[in-house]
Structures are given as C-alpha cells and as structure tokens.
UniProtKB/TrEMBL annotation:
Superkingdom as given in the UniProt entry: Eukaryota
Name under which the protein is recorded: Family with sequence similarity 129, member C
Native source species: Mustela putorius furo (European domestic ferret)
Family: Belongs to the Niban family.
Domain annotation Niban 1/2/3: ranges: 1-103
InterPro entries hit by this protein: Niban-like, Niban_1/2/3_dom
Length: 103
C-alpha cells in the first residue's frame, strides 16, 4: 500500500518544506530590501560595514517570525492527512524541525 502512495507522500512532504523555505526566503528578501535602502542612503564605508553586520546578526524579531509560525501551522494541517493512511505520527517533530530551520 505504501509503494502506491509513495509519490503522494513525497510530494506532500516536499511541498510542506518548500512552503516553509519560501516563507524564509520572503523574510530574507525583505531584510535585503531594507539593507539596500539603508545603503542607498549612505555612502560611508563605516555605515556599510555596520549595515551588513546588523543584517548578518538578524536579531530575534517575534513579529517577523509570525510568517514562519503561520506557515508551520498550515503545514502541520497538511501533514496530518498522512496520519490516517500511513500512521505517520512524526508531523509534530517534522514541523518543529522545519521551524528550527526557518529560525
């Protein structure tokens, strides 16, 4: 039974991880846009180093992480569909792993 459903399971897992990574990509793009805007406003080498350093640090921002949390919740719902046919009970640990990756 698993063999016939393997492509569906694989597709579901890949789409879930892809959605989480897409949320991370969006956050990084927003950060790069902010960095670019700051850099256009300043030609100082010192300011450039400061902005690049602060982007690399990316302090914890709960508001920014809400995007990742919402996607993780949606993903957990999609993965729950695998419990009935396959007894796949690892959705919580998989989503925590995806959240760790996103953070």
């Amino acid at each position: 039974k698993v063999d016939t459903q393997l492509s569906l399971v694989t597709q579901k897992l890949l789409s879930t991880m892809g959605a989480v990574l897409s949320a991370v990509q969006t956050l990084l793009a927003q950060g790069m846009d902010r960095l670019s805007g700051h850099l256009r406003g300043s030609s100082s080498g010192t300011q450039l180093r400061k902005e690049v350093y602060s982007f690399g640090e990316m302090p914890w921002d709960p508001e920014l992480m809400q995007t990742c949390y919402r996607e993780a919740e949606r993903s957990q719902g999609r993965l729950r569909q695998l419990v009935v046919p396959f007894g796949f009970f690892g959705t919580r640990s998989l989503m925590f792993g995806a959240q760790d990756l996103a953070q």
